[in-house]
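Internal QA ticket QA-208
Title: Verify multi-chain structure generation after dependency bump
Assignee: T.L.

Test input:
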Amino acid sequence: MKKAMFSLAVGALALAVGVAAQAQVTAEDMVKFRQSGYTFMAWNVGKIKAQAVDGSVPFNQEQVAAAANVIAAIANSGMGALYSPATLGETGWKETRLLPEFFEEQDKVREVAMNFVQQANALQEVAAMGDQAEVAAQLDELSKACKACHDNFRAE
Amino acid sequence: MKKAMFSLAVGALALAVGVAAQAQVTAEDMVKFRQSGYTFMAWNVGKIKAQAVDGSVPFNQEQVAAAANVIAAIANSGMGALYSPATLGETGWKETRLLPEFFEEQDKVREVAMNFVQQANALQEVAAMGDQAEVAAQLDELSKACKACHDNFRAE
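Actual output:
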């Protein structure tokens, strides 16, 4: 709990003040790193969905936990530092869909980001315990957290 | 069947547990996921290098640990499942540089992959302890592990 609270604090801080964890990174690379993080998370969400929700692949707790570790680690990596207004309209691997509202609604961004980190941490916890139904339920919460950002700050 | 047998083979190669973790993934997406994982690791390696080696950014143990967690989580995510001969010459975000030798030298691949996971796990451990010099030394070991794969299995 203490750890979760700390992670939330770090996440919020990273978004609020753009903690300088990195040396200079170009806007193109910021978008590339963002897209890479989300795409790699998508692969891991897909594995958990196949195993815990769809049942198209047998449930394997070790694999689900490894996938949840990836999602939590990426969620806690301080990606806020990759969001600069200079990245609007920029092309990384492909053109970013980030909307200008991201830089205009900081309270909303903070709320959405903190919830995303919280749900990712919770998924890591239930995946470590290994109850398939709990994993499926928490994956649904994580999906809602992802969607909240897409609905508010990503072009369709 | 051929595909299923191959999945078992790569699972063993990459220290995965030996069964397909994912539902069907296209060759294009396999390459995209691989490139995303390595690119996101590169961002995190860059942060650790800036803070622990170059000193261009002040050393921050929490940020370094978070970056090392990402690298270890990705290293342990079973990326072997993303290596199919069908991906040779395939374009994900960009054309893959993977060489055919990857599928012909399984012992070497296993050795390189195991060392990569081992060095990533060691980096996560020293980053959690927070000694800057130890982090720098272990990052160097990780870099050598990355280079071993590039030198053997990636086109220049």
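Spot checks passed. Confidence is low (pLDDT under 50) at residues 1-19 of chain A.
Status: verified.
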